[in-house]
Amino acid sequence: MRLSRRSRWLLRIAVAVGLAFIYIPLIVIGIYAFNSSKILEWPPPGFTTHWFSQAFKDEAAREAFFTSLKAGVIAAAIALVLGSLAALAVARHRFFGRETISFLVILPIALPGIVTGVAISNTFTQVLDVPLSLFTVIVGHATFCIVVVYNNAVARLRRLSGSFEEASADLGAHSWQTFRFVTFPGMKSALIAGGLLAFALSFDEIIVTNFTIGAGEQTLPIWIYSNLFRPHELPIVNAVAVIVILISIIPVYLAHRLGAEEGGATAGRGAGGGVETEATAVP
Amino acid sequence: MRRRDGNPARTAWLVVAGLVVFMLALAGCGGGSDSTSSGSSDEALQKVGKGEGEVSLISWAGYVEPEWSKPFEQKTGCKVNNKEAGTSDEMVELMKTGQYDGVSASGNATARLVAAGLVAPVNTDLVPNYQTVFADLKDQPYNTFEGVNYGIPHGRGANLLMWNGNDVSPAPDSWNVTMDPKVAAKYKGKISQYDDPMSIAEAAVYLKTHEPDLGIENPYELNEDQFNAAVDLLKEQQALVGEYWSEAAKQISAFAGGDITVGTTWQYQYFALKEEGVPVKASPASQGFLPKEGATGWSDTWMIAKEAKHPNCMYEWMNWIIEPKVNAEVAEWFGEAPAQELACKETANKNFCAEYHAEEPAFWKRVYYWETPLADCGNGEENCMDYNDWVKAWTSIKG
Amino acid sequence: MASEATVERRSASHRLSDLFHGRERLQIGALLAGPVGWLVIGYLGSLALLLVAAFWSVDPLSGATIKEFTLENFEALVDEPVYRDIAWRTIRTALLVTITDAVIAFPIAFYMAKLASRRGKALLVIGILLPLWSSYLVKVYAWRTLLSANGAINWVLEPIGLHGPGYGTTAVWLVFSYLWLPYMILPIYAGLERIPNSLISASEDLGASPFTTFRRVILPLSFPAVVAGSIFTFSLTLGDYITPRLVSNEQFIGNVIFSNIANNQPFAAALALIPVVVMIAYLLVARKLGAFEHV
Q: N or C, which terminus of chain C has less Cβ within 10 Å?
């Protein structure tokens, strides 16, 4: 696109300002994580890595981290299954209520978390007589994670021309073989991206979790929330947050690489081209 | 992929819709258990058996600290899982989940917990240390219902008026610094008020002294006129409030950060801030820690859940918390008057009980323990505002 | 591939596929049973159970639900003006945040889609996604300290005679705009990517200035993507109660629902109907505008 130099520079500045806006609070968190004083005063009086070693030693934090990991993986897995099934139905078939599926799938994440959380919690404790535990948390998370997988999968299936599948059938493959050797490989990177986003959503979720978790367990956000206001624990919380951000560079990078690889492999590229865009289809 | 007409799928959707309607009907017929559960006994435990290995508690900040919970764990083998709550409403809500064994309930929760069938009577014979609890804490309307004992006293205290010595002068001796719009205007935006309908009682306490024509006796039993007066006062205050706090630690960070300079608080925050070196002050011991008008306060009771999974450990905990040495530690740590008479000999500060008026029933007449507002005014009339009214009013006050 | 009519044993998957072959209804049913069952019976069912309580009431002392039909909750909502104020405050903030984010996101997304090099694009995408992995709570708390009277914002502004917004409405708007920005950037970026460069070139060849091209080609084509992003900024703001609590004194719908869940679930359910109805209406409009293709 032909733009004047001035416009280009204005855009570059806008991007820089936007990125600064996004990253300054994160940098502040980073600074506080190395803050030598317990109270979050500004500017911080000194520098220390003490909180990081405390964070690694903190048993509650470690347990919460692994609980969140567990919940996230299982919730993402369930969302992957349910989201793909729904996507396959919607993208490859026509039926009454097809348009409603997209609506249905987005509801859990579009409605306020407190409504979803209390509704699910009530159903478990009052109707089903099931006590709250990590299981109920996972059910809650999987419910609002379906949409992320679903959207990615549908977008990809729409780009994958159905003619490949028909060709496969013509060559004698039965439907499972077609799915396994033609459809699924085409969907794979979209599913991985969706799965990673679903995991990220579950990992950081606080509101629904608050209502569906049992007394004895803590996910990482719950642990953070209970320590956020404790003067003695807050610096550790900042350190934990920094650690999580650093660790998460890996899955984000992976998701991106996997998305980019698929850029050329699918038919029906349309005119977009370039970097795979539905790998970034957002929650 | 041939095109199909949608009729079979339509049937499926109708079936599904029918199921949803069916579930609604189920709900209407009271499907599933409600909070008033049947089954477990309405009676207190008869004998304390072997500990179950853990106990899950709901408590106020500063009530369950490692200083005395760790020795408890070592002595009884009951691991303590503690959940801190900021308001009585939170505590009631947590008790409803049925996941906890006990709760340190204030007077604005005890009646509700009993009425909702969430707690069981306490057999005080099984709690040896109960014998030597202060007499004016036993058999009180907030822990004894229809002659049956429902809990073990923890300790009592008055809500404090706290201010930053550097920013607030002259040193206030009355609640007018937060309640009288003319005086409070000086600290606009720097006032901290407790985020709970119980604040209406604080306004009522203030009006009891400053507007005696209203005839307020008990700040929790308010008829419509008295209630509206208190609510209006708080609505005027709203414009001046910097923060409504419900988590103790949140108020601590607000005072420490300089965002707040005066407000209602508990001793827990006061001592925590002093430890951080923040120049906070509160009504001094010479005034009984109370501003002129008196104050609202609390007398907390440990209650045991009706469906407690670890009742033996809970009884051990209730006995432990009023063990003389422990109750002394608890009281001094938090800054409240102990429930256990013998604790007064065990405090590190020998004057502690005197300073905190632990042994003076007359003093506590100026402290209005949190209570559950009921329509029953207690004097034959039934036109007092009940708790639902208080909660709704509180939402209107905060805007 | 069977050449003769063999009687070789077919694998389980083959037999399963045969079962479904030609029976499209069966295929659809099998695919949808799981997700639809989960979402309709599990999720919608739970919602229905919660929201039906809006027509019930509660005993003030015991907190037990009285399951008799009554409209008293709705009467309370209408009679007492504070609920209208709170609802309007919430919706207004959600709209402001949406608009703010759209305005900030668009230039960034445009740059990423049309002007960045391949490498730049990749870096920017990662750069935008990374903050989504940092804890929501820690971010809000960081803002709380930034906005504090002795915080970094005042530290920067006071020497030049200005003052930070402190806590309050502005703070809430600022923090929400901050939190949901990535959720707006990504769909717009995806949407702009899909606009073929050939269309833009054609517009320029026909003599349009860059601004006209933007106004008459790019904007209309990317609008559904903007609406898609707005679904998240709007819905996430509408239901949140943690941020208003941490950086202001204001009550949003989520806060009032939260404070009533304990004692008066029927009333909380009535309150919950407000954001639910608003959100469903918003989604229906968004769908009409084509946003669902871009989510």
A: N
Beta carbons of C241 and B389 less than 8 angstroms apart: no
Domains annotated for chain A, with CATH where assigned, are 59-280 (1.10.3720.10)
Q: Which residues contact C174 (CB under 8 A, 6 or more apart)?
A: C143, C165
Domain B54-156+298-360 has CATH 3.40.190.10: yes
pLDDT at C143 over 90: yes
Sign of CA dihedral C201, C202, C207, C213: negative
First CA to last CA across chain C, in angstroms?
41
Residue with token string 């009585």? B88
Each residue's pLDDT tens digit, A25-56? 999 888 888 887 766 667 777 888 888 888 88
Distance CA A280, CA C25 (A): 33
Distance CA A212, CA C29 (A): 30
Q: State the pairing for strand pair B241-245/B295-305.
A: unpaired
DSSP collapsed to 3 states, B298-344:
EEEEEEEECCCCCHHHHHHHHHHHCCHHHHHHHHHHHCCEECEHHHH
In this structure, what token pair is assigned to residue A173? 């493959």
CATH class as words, domain B158-296+374-398: alpha beta
Going from N- to C-terminal start, the domains of chain C cover 12-55, 65-293
Interface of C with B in 194-223 (CB under 8 A): none
Neighbour tally for B349: CB within 10 Å: 11
Q: What is the ipTM of this complex?
A: 0.87
- Each residue's pLDDT tens digit, A215-242: 778 999 999 988 887 767 788 888 998 8
Q: How is residue A201 written in tokens? A: 């959503």
Radius of gyration (Cα) for chain C, nearest Å?
26
Q: Considering CB atoms only, which of B1, B90, B391 is closest to C264?
A: B391
The yes-or-no answer to whether B54-156+298-360 and B158-296+374-398 have a common fold is yes
What CATH fold (topology level) applies to the domain C65-293?
Answer: MetI-like fold (1.10.3720)
Within a 10 A sphere around the Cβ of A116, how many other Cβ atoms?
26
Phi, psi of B68 (to 5 degrees): -120, -10
Q: Residue C259: closest CA among chain B residues belongs to which residue? A: B89
Read off the pTM.
0.86
Residue B287 DSSP label: G
Q: Which chains touch B (3 or more CB pairs under 8 A)?
A: A, C
Q: How far apart are CA A151 and CA A147, in angstroms?
A: 6
H or E segment at A137?
A: helix A134-159
Q: With residue A156 as reference, give the H or E element that holds it.
A: helix A134-159
Q: What is the pLDDT of residues C201-223, one digit of tens each?
A: 888 888 888 888 888 889 999 99
Nearest CA in chain C to A178: C17
Tokens found for residue B83: 């959940």
Contact status, residue A43 vs residue C151, Cβ threshold 8 Å? no
Higher pLDDT, B28 or C235: C235
List, in sequence order, every beta strand (DSSP E) within chain C: 57-58, 65-66
Q: Is the dihedral of CA A254, A260, A264, A270 positive or negative?
A: positive
Q: Compute the nearest-CA separation of B177 from chain A (Å).
A: 27
Across the interface, whether the CB atoms of A226 and B10 are under 8 A apart is answered no
CA B170 – CA B175 distance, rounded (Å): 13
| Best residue in B37, B65, B78, B247 for a mutation probing chain A (most A CBs within 10 Å) | B247
Instruction: Give pLDDT, residue A260.
Output: 59
- The answer to whether the CB atoms of A14 and C283 lie below 8 A apart is no
Contact partners, residue B149, CB within 8 Å, separation at least 6: B44, B121, B122, B124, B139, B143
β-sheet with B262-265: strand ranges across: B241-245, B191-194, B262-265, B160-164, B280-282
> What is the rounded distance in angstroms from the CA atom of residue B220 to the CA atom of residue B202?
10
* Contacts with A229 (C-beta within 8 Å, 6 or more apart), sequence order: B247, B248, B249, B250, B252, B253
Q: Pick the residue of A38, A39, A98, A168 with the most B CBs within 10 A to test the interface with B by mutation.
A: A39
